[in-house]
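Journal club prep, shared notes

We agreed each person brings one worked example of a sequence with its structure written out as tokens. Mine is tRNA (guanine-N(1)-)-methyltransferase. I'm keeping it raw so we can talk through how to read the token line rather than staring at a rendered picture. Sequence first:
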Amino acid sequence: MRIDIITSVPKLLESPFSHSILQRAQDKGLVEVVVHDLRQYAINKHGQIDDYAYGVGAGMVLMIEPVYKCLMRLQSEREYDEVIYMTPDGDSFEQKTANQLSLKKNIIILCGHYKGVDERIRQHFVTREISIGNYVLSGGELAAAVIADAVIRLIPGVLSDETSALTDSFQDGLVAPPVYSRPADFKGMKVPDILLSGNDAKIEDWRFQQALDRTKEKRPDLYKKYTGEE
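Then the structure, token by token:
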């Protein structure tokens, strides 16, 4: 899989892809993440990539020409399954979206900045718009890193235990049940006896009920969706 990220602030993306699972995935050759500095496609020698918006109102807008030139160069080199624009008014990012994107071969993520990007880019070149929440960041870089992380960890071979990602929260519509590790008794705080029983079937039943109860408590919206209750 290849992920190309277009940004006006490339240094913001250096750390997220240089550590832990995301770094190992790249080292294994399972994914290639390429960050493109939009200023390399600036309209003049001053590195200009933004300008004032037409009409009234404050704030700068990413200009159409630099973004267009970058997209055209990338798309001349390979076919892309998606051109994703990170924007607060996009579709809410969910686990099912991460699952879908993990099956793609090549995707582009365009990071918004300032007041956003020229609307013509969104109308004619973007195939999907995604938001990671109902709030506004300084730019789409951190949101792009979130998307990439959620997608990359689903690629077969990235996690040492491939079943791990399949039991994460939201994969089955519920949040994950509580988890415990050694020691079984720490200062009188004990691991539930069922988890020490060795009875796999009963443990799975316990985990399911715990996930159901926790979802009802913490995410009643998901609980109602899962159970069909009104």
